[in-house]
Specification:
The protein is an alpha/beta fold and 430 residues long. It has two domains: 162 residues, Aminopeptidase; 225 residues, Rossmann fold, CATH 3.40.50.150. An eight-stranded mixed beta sheet has the order 11-14-13-12-15-16-18-17, sandwiched between helices. A seven-stranded mixed beta sheet has the order 1-2-3-4-5-7-6, sandwiched between helices. A hairpin with a 5-residue loop joins strand 9 and strand 10. It binds S-adenosylmethionine and zinc ion. S-adenosylmethionine binds next to loops.
Length: 430
């Protein structure tokens, strides 16, 4: 069996599965959960598909199950209110809804739940008091009953279930070095130091009293970076990184992850448990909204992560701090370091300077790590607006060394076709 995102072509199969599920429920003592409302309506399924939250379970090319899955902080707003109990863990979670199978293959429900759990390590779901089949499945899959919630579609109370992480986090208390774990709305170490989870679901582990708000990038530059990357201009790099990790498992740390464009994409791989941090709270706030990883605010010079706890790290256009990278990687662990290639944004430089020079592709000298490989990713893109040209220019180190007279040369451009080029250097911790 495999899981993939649903498309509109799956709608007929999904509708059939839900019709089967309503009949099955009615025949097994649960006529009120989906029957009276004909739940879920096709308009809702279309909406889920468009938002990328609808999935199908496929066996031998045939759709045999379907469900809704979304993850992040506040993934299901109706779960904010819970009565007769409380949630176990307030950290970002995945929510499952509308899990149903066509009844032809055994184990579809469990397969879907395990798949979702592997992606986020923290799931919530609800079901009707009469749905004994689903209650038993949730319990078998390791969910705990937490209280009562109410859902949007009708006024019947629902039983709330949650499955929390079995694993310990790799995070360490920045005050005493003790292991940090999610408890309630905070992360806590055994000595009692607590770090509140922000509304977006990230945690600030900077020891400094100076707020991350004022350190690193401003809100405006974080947003313009997010908007620029979201347009997909650097997608070739993102895809190359995802390909590198395609067959890998384990814990990945994205060092100086910025607003999480690459981090969240790595987090799509269910075999990876991804962490990302940055000095800038503004960046991490945006990253947490992208989801896919556990995000925290921290300084590269003192990463609050246990020694040897990381299977692989990525460091993309960020400062290189070998002692900390070597410390957090396990023996045999890999660091993928991304820097601009010699011809990165060449056409932009040609517009700016009379005699542009190519970027230096020399890698930093290393003592604790060993360089084991290096690949180049090249593509040609067209920057579609003056705003995008300005943003990409601001993202380069030479923006700040360019005179206003030279900067003005870009103002006349409505669009710009240019090469982009990235070096991914691979290091091993011996
Ligand atoms: C050029 S951005 C790259 C961000 C992200 N990797 C990307 O490619 O979108 C560099 C990032 O490094 C972060 N940074 C700079 N110094 C840092 C430090 N000492 N500790 C943690 N992050 C730092 C900045 O806040 C910024 O988000
Ligand atoms: Zn502590």
């Amino acid at each position: 069996m495999e899981i993939r995102r649903s498309t509109r072509n799956d709608l007929a199969a999904m509708n059939e599965i839900y019709a089967f599920a309503r009949r099955f429920m009615a025949a097994h003592g649960n006529p009120n959960q989906w029957g009276p409302t004909g739940w879920p309506p096709e308009a809702l399924l279309r909406q889920d598909i468009a938002a990328g939250n609808s999935y199908v379970c496929v066996e031998d090319g045939r759709v045999v199950g379907t469900f809704f899955f979304r993850q992040g902080a506040d993934a299901e707003p109706t779960y904010r209110d819970i009565t007769d109990g409380s949630w176990l863990d307030e950290s970002p979670y995945g929510v499952l809804h509308r899990v149903a199978s066509d009844g032809t293959v055994k184990g579809v429900g469990r397969f879907c739940m395990d798949w979702a759990y592997a992606r986020c390590g923290h799931l919530r779901a609800d079901t009707h008091g009469d749905n004994l089949v689903m209650q038993s499945l949730l319990q078998k899959c390791g969910f705990v009953r937490c209280g009562i919630v109410h859902v949007a579609e009708d006024s019947y109370p629902r039983l709330a279930y949650e499955k929390v992480r079995e694993h310990k986090t790799i995070l360490r208390c920045p005050v005493c070095g003790g292991a940090l774990d999610f408890r309630g709305k905070a992360m806590r170490c055994p000595a009692g130091h607590a770090f509140d989870l922000a509304r977006e679901g990230y945690v600030n582990l900077l020891r400094s009293t100076r707020s991350g708000d004022r350190m690193g990038d401003s809100k405006e530059s974080a947003r313009s970076r997010r908007d620029f990357l979201s347009k997909g201009y650097y997608r070739p790099l993102r895809d190359a990184l995802c390909d590198i990790f395609a067959g890998q498992r384990g814990t990945v740390l994205d060092i100086c992850c910025g607003e999480g464009y690459y981090t969240a994409a790595l987090g799509e791989n269910p075999a990876l448990r991804v962490y990302g941090f940055d000095l800038s709270k503004e960046m991490i706030r945006l990253a947490a909204r992208r989801g896919g990883a556990t995000y925290f605010v921290a300084n590269l010079a003192a990463i609050p992560v246990a020694d040897g706890s990381v299977d692989a790290a990525t460091q993309i256009f960020a400062p290189f701090h070998e002692p900390e990278f070597a410390r957090v990687l396990r023996s045999g662990g890999r660091l993928y370091s991304v820097t601009p290639g010699s011809r990165h944004l060449w056409a932009l430089k040609e517009r700016l300077y009379d005699a542009p020079y190519p970027n230096d592709e020399a890698l930093p000298a290393v003592k604790l790590l060993r360089c084991v490989g290096r690949r180049k990713i090249s593509a040609v893109i067209t920057l579609e607006s003056p705003e995008d040209i300005e943003t990409v220019f601001r993202m380069t180190p030479y923006y700040y060394h360019t005179s206003q007279r030279d900067r003005d040369k870009l103002n006349a451009l409505a669009s710009l076709r240019t090469e982009i080029e990235f070096i991914i250097a691979e290091y091993e911790k011996p």
